Give the backbone structure.
Amino acid sequence: MFGLIWFIQVVHYPLFLQVTPSQFPVYEAAHANRTTYVVAPLMLLELASALLLLVPRMRPPQVSAPEAWIGVALVAVLWGSTAFIQVPLHNRLHLAYSAPLIQRLVRTNWIRTVAWSARALLVLHWAYRGALTT
């Protein structure tokens, strides 16, 4: 998700401004439909793996309990931002092109970009510590 969110943040969402207003509702609907097929399974898998790390017998030794909770908190931020900010903005954009809404989508998506970047760093930290112990 780290690579995907950076692509969306830097390339994909800003390009929404290049779609003609008359074609935008159809484009937005297709975007949302196709993106859901890619992102939803990955987000569900990420949620499940984050929650499993809270279970002591499922947690690798290089992952501390507080770090597992940090991971879950980041996932909660991601889900919250998606559900309460990005999805409602996309729903409004389904109806009509709006440059201010697109700009707001780009600005608020930084929440997810930062959270997924933090999760990537956390997972890399765990991988590094795991490599040191083998």
